[in-house]
Amino acid sequence: MTDMTVQKRSLAWLADKLRESDTKTDFQRSIRDICRAIGAKHGSFLMRHVPGVVGDDPFVADTYGETWTQHAAEHKYECVDPTRSLSEISIQPVDWADLPKGRTRLRKFFRDFTDFQLGRQAMTASFRGPAGDRSLLTLTSDATDKRWMTTKNDLLMAISILHPAIHRAVLKTRFNFENVIAIRLTPREKECLVWAAHGHTSKQIGENLGLTPATVNFFIDAAVAKLSASNRAHASAKAVALGMIAPPR
Question: Which of 17, 95, 107, 151 is the most buried (most CB within 10 A)?
Answer without folding.
Answer: 151
